[in-house]
Every structure is written in structure tokens, then in C-alpha cells.
Design a protein that fits this description.
Chains A, B, C, D: Its EC number is 4.2.3.5. The structure is a homotetramer. Chain A has about 350 residues and is of the alpha+beta class. In chain A, about 30% of the residues lie in helices and about 20% in strands.
Chain lengths: ~350, ~350, ~350, ~350
């Protein structure tokens, strides 16, 4: 069950990086929603590597096919199976690594857990597993947009030590984010980020960074008290993405240095429907439940573990070795992580929105 | 189901701050484990307010009673119901707040969610809800200690801008943590933290901070791939604690500034059983699965929302008001949050340890 | 998690027959429902043994207490904890049985499963465990009655070879059912059932029988396709009750002898709201989903395993022994099973009604 | 989540009868199990219609493909996605039925539930949905056979009023069951069953019947107390199969007429490992937990709702109509139901066997 996410809007992903296919099955999507592959493909294409000189050159087509749950362009309320065939299967690139666990990768822990080594490509721990998430997330987004008016936009807010200062731009949109190859909506910052990535690449090294996500058009009342708080579900969702090491919501770690009188968000009247807050240090969530303000959170990605430079480590028998990656590697996962963060946010919000509808 | 945590070792908490009782039911604790109230009470007592001049003066006895699942001092493998009666019921203190939602508190969002206002004391959003977690966490800890050799110790590593520098002490223990009222294992830092808390208290204000948690005696292989990764489950668990705004594991946000070659933890031989790592920037978790090194993570707590100082805000109708808390308030939740963080870590680890045992 | 039932309206029961208390925690009951102990106690009292000469003489008070989730007579939407203290703790009666597993009882299988023998009273396998179900079921019934107009009435339709012929009476009600001590709504049949029970009792023996349950005021559309069909959930619920060996819905096993043309229920027009069926061989469920007609099903209970007569069997070591029960025994569980069947039906319907509300 | 079955060994099915594909994803199958399509295909082929003159002539290839979770002939412990493409898509046959709900079919209830009518072939309510179950069940069976020594064999024990008397043959096997087209292991009874089916077919009518299932090689201790008893899980599993109206375990409904002294199964010594029972009226399950004896249960199937004969009913607007099926219909689902019952039994046992392994 560890490959399933959600309680009412439930997604199960499947697929190894070098098996026949990857994909997802969504159980619990409401009926009557307009849906076709065209709603899903753009996010898969955004997730694809090889889209710019900055990211991994492995070429993948990643065409999604809806196998079930949709008839005549409308969802039936039945499970929606989404499939992306794997086209490039080159296990040879990875074969050499088998006697040496790659440092800070999943090789060692998977072997300890399962007692079998995945033959190739890291199996389920590969970034390719995120295809199922992105496909399912696009369906969740469609539902949220059509039925609740919710918009989700993520962007790269830091690469190594280069950080986007200040608030996200008011006209934040995916188009604006995609205007630069690093997916940072500020062109100047994006350029400095690009330099950091190129420099690491030239050294056979990698960089990490931060993805910020903003969700607008949220109704107050989403999130379930105690263990399924909106904060808790975002925490689980984001820290299930490969290479993540942290999440902060609203003021986050910086907010721990404030006093309560500075940090509290005073309420203000909004025309007609409920209250708003003058500031949003809460990041749109109070007591674990959405308050109607934009939900804002930041996700920390460590530098990619697979690097071109040689590493001094030991093999499974404990013998010291020098390890160098054979295949080409991705010096910065951040731009490709943007649609994955958006997808996981959509899976969280779709589930909690439907759970809220289950009252009474 | 939002009050249930875990898949195999499952905990359901119940209770409002001013109802008859709070508590928890654990379903899935293995049979044959030695268990009595004496295993649980110490953590409840550590959680209690009023233990020092630094924390809230509300006096609570918080005596736990095991209602079921234990016979002759041994668990039966059946549900363990744990009950703590509420003794101090003084809803009057909170009654005035009802027409005005407290800023950055759960009042507004709960009302938007449920359409009813909890009469008193914040209902389930009260810190008192954590009693059920702490009681259940103590049972999980007992199982982990007796059956797996696991030890969990949390401490306050930052209060406002005062931060404990460097690595946690090698002889970290609960006794050492409890040696100072702020529960910081470095006496000098603890003293400076105390000053920050006293200063805030004098101003009718509050401070936030960071709790760090270290889990030792972990076997490699705990954590389920994809959505139930150890990172993901810690994320959900910690961000379900009231007032939390972030979590980082291992190198966390600071690690995003490193290059892969600096950040990767090289493997080293360990005598006999598996490999270790020379450094622990992974925080004991790789690919979402424990690698046997200590699990280390940090949790951000915002400053307490309830403050004594007057706040400018609006009531539910949108009219501007000055709001001042009537009851005495807790200027710093951090010392009391320590056993809560430990409890949630125990609930995560107990569940994943048992899930790992379900293989094959 | 095996003590939890339901997906949205979730019940977890706890308690051994001779521990401190038995009870249940309900997570997912909607807020704003009028609820007090008075809504729950009548069903617990109906479940109590010792209410007539026909049933077990063990005297229990079984007073329920609501510990949480209700404030000022209204549900809060938070977990509702229900507790019934155990008053009669006489483990001595059962102590002798420990070296010999009682035939067709749970002694042997529990020992094989857990590796520990419950000291007294059969632990969780005792009929006393059903108190938690009946208490929670009464809450579910309250919600169904107030919010959906649903009524649930069960009755004893067979004891040994005495069977109630024909359709249940049109004016079926709990009062009518309770008019006879065996809880059969036909006085003549009830009298013959009573004779069977008395005869078995005189022989130190026991009898089985059938409980029929009728649920009226059902909306069309309850039940989730595939594995959570209304039939499937009733099957799970009823076959989780101790001593049950079968369930049939609508025409059941007798219907397997009909042809399709005889068995199909033709649709008929109903004034205004949807269609009805001219006959109800479907038992109110088609394709696993309610069609709005009354839900009718029958549950088979084997004769009570604990009997007064000596039984030839073997002890745990395989030595042949004569086993005789020491305590007084209940020759017929059927009348007391009536409120348990009603409770489980209520838990199924409340959950599926709320799940249906979670669409869209 | 209604398309998911199991807690540790979890199966999610997907697919409409006339969409692109049907299939299943299994999450929780242990790693290191030898598995290929050849382990799955035989049961799918047994499930196929058109295998004899007795069953529906619609020709389907039903070739299964493993998309993930298996590498080099061994399971990885990751989700196993199983896909069967739909080849015959002839929605025209069913189009006429759309304004008239077929009596005792799922048309009406699905429309009431979802507010949309499945365009063709009954959508998820079609028998074709069982392909995913049979494929997943074959994987569960493989695990049970290889790791636990469990064998599952089902057969047709009644068609209309023709019933197989006495105990199942001692040499019961799938080969023996498949020796007759009706899948009844007694040739004489099988012939009389065939006559009933042919007679119904000649009349454009249908017949129902009973499938009996025997599971051997069961360890004592499978089944979780209270709501996940082995009886309860079998109840849910079997009553989730289309057209089922009842299940009885061991002595079932007939056992309700016995006295306790007759019904109880005395224990007997077995060489070395635990006890057995002299009789098996318990059907291998006591207190909801397996006792090591064969598990035996019977499932009631109503006569197929779709018949060739005209039926007097009403359309969705309430107008009286004569309804006749256009496509050819299957007069008796029983032989094809045999592998479905086996599959569901395997899914129950695999899950409970793994849950038992999670103790300690």
C-alpha cells in the first residue's frame, strides 16, 4: 500500500524505470469531469528530461494513454488507469554499479530492505517513478480547476546559494515560470542559477535547491484535524518526492525567530464571504485547515546523488573503491521537479477537498 | 479517520480539552510485550504544563489508565485503550473569545470547516489533544526499545534567535535534556533561551523555536518506497503537531547549498553487519529508507498564537476589535513539545518496523 | 487495524471481557448531530444478558459514558469515545479451561495466532466485545435516522428447526420484536422457539438460528462498486460477529434455484422520485448498490460453542479429556444478537451514506 | 478506494468492459517470488467465455501482460501492474438498452449513484471487470503455493435444483473440476447440471447455482480478530463478485439447525504440530481465525439477470415497456465464476497470511 496516496481521491503508482511501463491508477475521481490525454500530457512533457541543455540528455517520449475510467471525454467515476510505455531501456549503463552502492542513493537501503538488488536503473527509486504521480496529479488539477477554481504554480526559488528574494510575482503563472530553462520567474535570478548549474556540470558535480509552490483559489475548510491536517498531508506528499530533505509552510523556519505578536496574521474583512488575513505568515493554513488565503510552501532538494566525479566509498563487501558514474547525469533536478511538486500538491488538495465534501 | 495514524501499529486519539477525557486506542501492538502505566506516565508528566516557571501554570494531573489490551502486565495483541481524565474544566476563561477568532489560531478554520464553534478551550485543536499521542507514543517506544533496541531523544535546539551550534552531544539522553527547564542539553545555550522566554513573557508575548530529534538503534530497511517513505511519514507526523511550520531531515535546507560531491555520505565498512556512512548528511535515511545511521531531523514551531498583548483584528462579522487573551498563556511551547516530537517519531518508527516485518 | 470498521464513518472497538472497560471510538461522525447517552443506552440494554430466563444469567449494568466528541448535546465532528466499565470480573470461572481448548471456540486459534493465552473470559473473542459495536452502531443509527430517515429492525427468524414463514410483518418495529423474549415478531413461532431453547438448556446444550434484518428508508446509490459493494460490506460486517457462519441477501441461497425470468425484479414507476421494483428478490441491492427498496438479509448463527454437557476432546498436549463448562452458559445467543446485527448494519449504512456524499 | 482489496497484499482493479484495457495493480507482493505471465494466463483462460457450448459465445483473447514489478522472472517487491487489452469493442449491442434499466442489473443503481449512464456494456458492473481480480488472484495463489503450501480449488456444486450431494472428492483438483464443462467434479451430477443449463438456454432464460471452494494447506493463525476475521474477509470478498447473494462457511445455514453438542468439532492430536479436529463443521475457521483444517465455503449466485426472453418493466421515465436482450447471453455464469471465486479466496488468504507475518 506504500504506492497509494489519498483517502477519497486515491492514486496508486506503478512501474520501474526500465520495465515495460510506468503509470498510475486513480480511484475516487468524481464522475462527469471532462478529461482527455490532452489534460495530462503537458505536465508530463514539462517533467521530461532533455528539454534543455541544463537537464539530463536521456530522451523520452512519455506519451500518456488513458486505459479506463473515461468514456466519450468524460470521467465515469471508476478507476482511471494511466499508462506511459518505457521506450529507452538501456540497463547496460547501470550494470557496473551493482557491486558498489552509490553514496546517498537508494541502492544500499533497497538491498537491505528487499534482499534483492534491482537489476537496472534504480527500479522504483528512479526519478522515472514520478511519471505516474505527474499524470495522476494532472487529473487532480483538472478536477480542482474545473470544480473548485484552484490554481497551482510551483517554481525554482533557489539553486545552490542563489535565492530568489522577496515575494513571488503577483502574475505568477506556468508560462512565466517556463520562460526560463531553470523555471525561476525572475530572469536575472534565473540567469545566475543557470551559471551555478553549468559550473557544477563542468565539474562533473551537481547542485541542489528549493522549489516554492503557491496554490490559489482555495476554499476555507480543507484539511482534517489531527493526523490528516493540510500541513501533515503536504509534509508527507513533498517528502515522498525523491531527493527532498525538508519542507516549510508559510513563514517556516524563519518564522521560528519571530515573536507571536509579529507572526500572527490579523484577520480582515473580505467582501461577503468570510474573513481574510492582512498578512500570510500562516501560508494559508491555520490549525491544519485552509483559511482561504493562498497556500505557500517551500521544498528542499538535496544535490543529485549521482555525479560524474569519482567518489571514494566501499563496495557491498566493505572494500574501498573509487566510484565514477558511467551514464550522463543530471546536474540539477530542480526544473524537472517543478511539475512533480505541483502534482503532489494537487493530489493532496483534491483528496482533502473531496473529504470536506463528505461531511454530513 | 483523520484521528488515526499508522498502518500496522495504528493509533487513534480522542478527546477535547474540556470534555470528560482524552486518550488513545492503539490497534496492532504485538502481544507479549511487558507494559504498565509506569511505562507511559513519565512522558505524560514531561508533557504537562506547569512544571516550571517557564511554561503555562495550568495544573493538570494527567494520570493515565490502561483500559484494555494488557493482562497481568503483558500486552495481549488486542487494542490498547489509554485514558486520561480531564480534571480542570474552566471554560469561562475562553468564553469571551467566541465572537472573535484568535489570529493564527484554529478558531476561524474550524468554524469554516464544521459550521459549529467549539464551546471551550479550542476543542481538538488544543494542545491537550497531544496527550493521546504522547501516551500512545510511549507504548510504541516501549516496543521499539524492547524489541529493536531503538532510543529516541528530542531536545530544544533553538528558541527565537538563540540556536544550539554544532552536533548534538554524544551522550545525549533524556536526563541530560531535562537538566535544564528549556530542555536544551547545553547549559549555556539553555540559559540564553530562558532569557528570551522570560523577556517575551514579560511583554505578554511568545516565542517560537526548533526541536531536534535523534533516533538511534535503527535497523536498515525501515520505510516503504514511494508514499510511505520514512521521510514522508516523519513529515506527516511532525507537521500534524500543533504550531509546526516545517521539518528538515539530515542536512535539510542548509544541504540545498552544497554540491553533490560535498553532500554525499561515503559508505564505510562496519564490523560484520552491513555498511555505515562516514558522514550523516542523509540523516539516516536514503531513498526514503533507513540506512542504520541515526535518524536526525528538526521541527520548526512558530511562536504560540495565543498571547497576552492586545491584537488588532476583526470579529466574525468583520468588525474591527482589540483582542486580548484572558487566561494566562504559555510564552513558549517548545519544552513541552519535546515529548510530543518523541512520541510521533515513535509512532512512525514502530509502524514502519512492523511493516518491514510483514515481508515474505 | 483489525478492530476498525468503515472508511469515512470509522469505528474502532476495544476491550477484553474482564479488563477495566470495553468501548469504541468513532472517527468521522458529522458535526451538529444531537446525541447523548440516552440515544445509546437502549441498544446496550437490549444486548445485555440476564434479561430473561432464556439468556445467560450473568448480570451486567453496561452503562455507557460519552468521553469526547459531544458538547452541549451536539456532536462536534471530532472522535466520539464511548466507554462501558466492566463490573463483574470473575476470571475464576474460566481458569480451569486453560489447559484444554474448548471445541469450536476461539481458544485454540487465538493461542496459535498470538502465542499467548488470554487469561480469562476469552479476551476479545468474548461476546462482551460486541458492546463497543452496539454503542457505536447506536450513534450511526442516530445519524441515519435524523439525516437520512433510515430505520433498521432485526429479529430472530429461526431457532434450530423452528422458522418464521412468510414475509416479515408490515408493521415490523423494535417494540413488536421485543414483545417476546426470543425477539421473534410472531407470537406463535416465538413460543415454539422458546420451547427449543428451554429443551436445549435442560440438556446442558445449545441451539443456533437465524437473524433477519430489514433496513427501510434507504436512498438509491449507497454502496461503492467492486470491493466495497453494499453486499460486500454487509458480508464483512455480519461475518465479523462471533458465531456467524453465513449471510444471504434478498433471495439468497433459495434464489439460486430460480430462473432469471422468475428472479428478476421488474421496475415499476414510483410517484416522483425514481423507480421501484414490483418484487424485492434483490433485497434492495443491485450491482452492489442500494436501489431504494428495503434492504433485507439473513444471518446464520451456529449453536453456542460453550455448553454444559461434557465433551470428549484433547488438551493442548493432545491428551484425551472430558471437558465440561463450569460457569452457567447461554443456550441461545440469538435474542441478544439482534441489536448486534442492527448495529453492524448501521455501521455499514452510515459509512456508505457518507461515502456517497463525498462525490463531487 | 472501492476498487482496492487488502491491507498488506493490496489489489486495485481497473477497466470498463469496452474501454482500452482492464487489469490490476498489486501493491505488497513480497520480493523474490518467481513470476511470469505463464503463472497468470491459465486462470484468465479458464475465466474466458466461449470455452464451451454452455457459456457465452463472445470471443476474447484475454492475454495478460506484466507491466511492472517483475524483473528477470522474479518479483521486486514493487507494484505489479497487470494489463489485458480489450479487443472486442461492440458497444452497439448494448446501445438500445439505455433508456430502459435492465431488471435486477446494475443499470438503475449506477445511474442513481453517479448521475451518468455508462455508455456501453455495463461499465465496471460487467463481468469483464473480474479479469483484474483473476489476474491478481493468480499472483496471490503463486505466493501462497510457493511460500505457504496452500492450494485453492473451487467447483460448481449446484445448478438450479441439481446439487452435488456429500463431501467433495478427496482427490479434488482443478484438472478434475475441468473434466466437465460445468466444472462439477462428479460426472453424473455434471451431466444433469448441463441439462438444466441447456433447457434454460433453449427458453432464452438463465439459471443460478452455488460454487463451493476448498482451501487446503492453511496454517493456523490466519485472520485478524474483530472486523478482519477470516470469515469477514471471505464474506466481503465473495459478496463483491457480481451476481452473488450469499455465502456460508463450514456448516453454514444447515448448521443453525444443530445443537452445540452435535455441531462442535472435537479436537484430536496431530503428529507433532498442533491439534486437528475430528470433524470440520467450522469450515477451518474458529473465532474468525484459521485452525489449520481445510477452509470450506459456499457462494450463492443468482440466475443471470440478462436474459433473452422479453421482460415487462418500465423505462427511466416510468413508462411500461417490453424489454428483450439483443446480444447473445450467458445462461449460466457458474463455470466461469469458478476461477473468480478462487482468485478472491487467494486475495483474502495472501493478505491475511502476510498480516500474520507482521506480528512481532
Amino acid at each position: 500500500m506504500s504506492s497509494t496516496f489519498g483517502t477519497v481521491f486515491r492514486t496508486t503508482t506503478f512501474g520501474e524505470s526500465h520495465g515495460l511501463a510506468v503509470g498510475a491508477v486513480i480511484d475516487g475521481c468524481p464522475p462527469g469531469l471532462a478529461l482527455s490525454e490532452a489534460d495530462i500530457q503537458p505536465q508530463l512533457t514539462r517533467r521530461r528530461p532533455g528539454q534543455s541543455a541544463l537537464t539530463t540528455p536521456r530522451d523520452e517520449q512519455d506519451r500518456v494513454r488513458i486505459l479506463s475510467g473515461v468514456e466519450a471525454g468524460m470521467t465515469l467515476g471508476t478507476p482511471i488507469a494511466l499508462e506511459v510505455m518505457n521506450e529507452a531501456q538501456r540497463p547496460g549503463d547501470y550494470r557496473e554499479l551493482q557491486s558498489v552502492p552509490r553514496p546517498s542513493h537508494a541502492d544500499y537501503t533497497y538491498r537491505m530492505k528487499y534482499g534483492v538488488a534491482a537489476r537496472s536503473g534504480g527500479g522504483r527509486a528512479s526519478a522515472r517513478e514520478t511519471i505516474g504521480r505527474v499524470a495522476a496529479g494532472a487529473v487532480a488539477e483538472k478536477m480542482l480547476r474545473d470544480r473548485r477554481g484552484t490554481e497551482i504554480v510551483a517554481f525554482v526559488s533557489a539553486v545552490a546559494d542563489v535565492e530568489l528574494e522577496g515575494e513571488p510575482p503577483a502574475d505568477l503563472s506556468r508560462d512565466r515560470v517556463d520562460a526560463t530553462p531553470v523555471r525561476c520567474p525572475d530572469a536575472g535570478t534565473a540567469e545566475r542559477m543557470r551559471e551555478r548549474i553549468e559550473a557544477a556540470k563542468a565539474d562533473g558535480d551537481s547542485v541542489g535547491g528549493i522549489v516554492t509552490c503557491v496554490c490559489r483559489g482555495i476554499q476555507a475548510g480543507w484539511g482534517e484535524p489531527i493526523f490528516d491536517k493540510l500541513t501533515a498531508m503536504l509534509g508527507r506528499a513533498m517528502l515522498s518526492i525523491p531527493a527532498t530533505k525538508g519542507i516549510e509552510i508559510g513563514s517556516g523556519f524563519a518564522g521560528t525567530r519571530m515573536r507571536g505578536s509579529e507572526h500572527n496574521d490579523p484577520f480582515v474583512a473580505r467582501g461577503g464571504c468570510g474573513l481574510g488575513t492582512a498578512t500570510n505568515r500562516s501560508g494559508g493554513i491555520q490549525g491544519g485547515i485552509s483559511n482561504g488565503e493562498p497556500i505557500v510552501f517551500r521544498v528542499a532538494f538535496k544535490p543529485t546523488a549521482t555525479i560524474g566525479r569519482a567518489q571514494h566509498t566501499v563496495d557491498y563487501e566493505g572494500n574501498e573503491v573509487e566510484l565514477a558514474a558511467r551514464g550522463r547525469h543530471d546536474p540539477c533536478i530542480l526544473p524537472r521537479a517543478v511539475p512533480v511538486v505541483e502534482a503532489m500538491a494537487a493530489l493532496v488538495l483534491a483528496d482533502l477537498a473531496l473529504r470536506q465534501a463528505a461531511r454530513g
